Each structure stands twice: as structure tokens, then as C-alpha cells.
Amino acid sequence: xxxxxxxxxxxxxxxxxxxxxxxxxxxxxxxxxxxxxxxxxxxxxxxxxxxxxxxxxxxxxxxxxxxxxxxxxxxxxxxxxxxxxxxxxxxxxxxxxxxxxxxxxxxxxxxxxxxxxxxxxxxxxxxxxxxxxxxxxxxxxxxxxxxxxxxxxxxxxxxxxxxxxxxxxxxxxxxxxxxxxxxxxxxxxxxxxxxxxxxxxxxxxxxxxxxxxxxxxxxxxxxxxxx
Length: 227
Hints:
By secondary structure, this protein is of the alpha+beta class. The strands form 2 sheets. The protein has a 5-stranded antiparallel β-sheet with strand order 2-1-7-6-5. Strands 3-4 form a two-stranded antiparallel ribbon. The protein is elongated and about 65 Å long. Helix content is about 40%, strand content about 15%.
């Protein structure tokens, strides 16, 4: 996959406008564009900005991380590609409809049991004289990731053992399997779950997972070479 870190920065003309209260030194396109791109890099959802037919002019950190060789979407030479032939026409029709007709679409891209949902949204530039663009928002590949669970655990002062159990529950692992994997009695795991529910106010395991899923979608500080 190409190094998208050299992708042009978003500009004020692409998304957003300054307020009248902003100091003049913050008004330059370069400064605001860098802030906007850094803001999007902190969001735990893959975000792409596509212009022309398929040219990716911006990809945030999460998109660059997720779109590896196994992802149903690829960026090849700054061009967006769908791995499955059946996804090509619906994807690019949605992009064109977003850019030229202002339509919003949600698509399922990839194999039936291993694909991802992609929202294709119009980016309006008004009368700025800039070519229309489409924003692609990549759906999460799991309900809760470890970072969300870790933040949630810290917010509620869970112990290390309770955090481990929480992560397992968020991954869909039943209490009996958690007990087997950690070689403890099921009653021990259920005691830990009761403690977690008491600390968090969750009424059930489903409610607990829902609370974790509602945590802000943050990206880890240690991002590796794609930072």
C-alpha cells in the first residue's frame, strides 16, 4: 500500500470555515488544513476524501492502518480500488451520486461475512469553484476494540483482571469460555462480571458492551510507522 502520509493536507476550502473570533494568525489555509488533518487522525474511524473518479486526496491514520491487503478497499497509487469485482460498480456509482447529486449512501463492501459497511457522503464546496468531492467513512470491523475497553476500564477504576474479562466480553466471548481460557472457575468469572456491573451501573452484559461501544472512537498514541 502506498505511503499516504504525503497526501495533500485538507484545506479550509475542502471542509469547514473559520469563525470571526479566530485570531488572524490562525486563518491561513496551511495552518487550518494541518489542524483538520491532525484532528481526523485522532478519530478511530477510517476517513477518506475522494475527488475525480477515484483519486484519494486524503486518508486519515485509521484508514491507512485498516486498508491493508485483507481490507475490501485498497488505495493503489492514490486511486481507490475495490477488491471484489462485484463491489466496483456500486462503490463508484455511490461516489458519483454523492459528488454530483448530493446523495448519501451506505454500502456493504467485501465478502458477506467478512465485509465492512462504508458510508459515502457528499462534501459541498458551495460557490468556491472547487471540484466536488465525496467523503467515505469506513465502518468498524468490531463493536468494541481493546483501546475503547481500556479507556472504559480506567474511567470506572476496574482492576487488571476485570479489564481482561471486560475485553473478552466485548469480543463476544461467553463467560464459560473466558473461564476456560484463563483456567478459573466460571463462578469466579461471574463474580468479576458482577463487580464490573456494580462499578459501571450496567444492568446486563449487553448493557455493559453497549456502554463500551459508546466510548469516543479514539486512536492509540503509539501509532507505529504510519504516524
